[in-house]
Write the structure tokens for this entry.
Amino acid sequence: MKLLAPSILAGDWWNIGKQIEATVRGGADVIHFDVMDGHFVPNITVGPEILQHISKNVQLPIDAHLMIENPDRYIPEFVKSGANWISVHIENVVHIHRTLSFIRELGAKAGVVLNPGTPVLLVEEAIHYADYVLLMSVNPGFSGQRFIERSLDRLSELKELRDKLNPDCLIEIDGGVKEENIREVAQRGADVIVVGSGIFASEDIEEQTRRLKELIS
Ligand code: DX5
Ligand code: ZN
């Protein structure tokens, strides 16, 4: 089964609770929570305190995508605040085995993320002990960017690697996924599909979530 993960960064934060509930009614599987620090990426978003308010009221697993420097320092706080999945970028974690093991020890699923310019093979080792690999299909920092087409071939490459080395490891894709390309990314091997503006820019968030879910079912 393919999982749909609305990225709430693209939502209207005045009404974010209602909008998250709409995605849940529409069949969302995971809530994707983007954390940015203005250093690793050129944007700043939200942290553990905001996450607490969301996790208290949402039953679905919460997937915290950490686009921050020194993520190890903040991992315990994110777990305490309700993150069920936590991913860190391979580009800024020196001791990836230590970091992924640490996330798992704290009881969360551990993910490793690849930027569009990072060779897929760089996760060849970490894939053995990651619960998921997140392939970025835009440069991280903002919602609403265009899908980088090359990501499709990278997805196939990652799937081959995953099937060979650790079939239990999920593949997640994030950035620029919309109604037009969601089927293709699912067919190419994405198990977890993050959609931000492709859901939240819609007039009817519940219906749009349902439509995207159907496209990958
Ligand atoms: C980008 C974030 C994504 C983003 C996705 O840095 O990691 O999760 O919010 O938004 P869309 O689907 O609009 O590209
Ligand atoms: Zn993300």
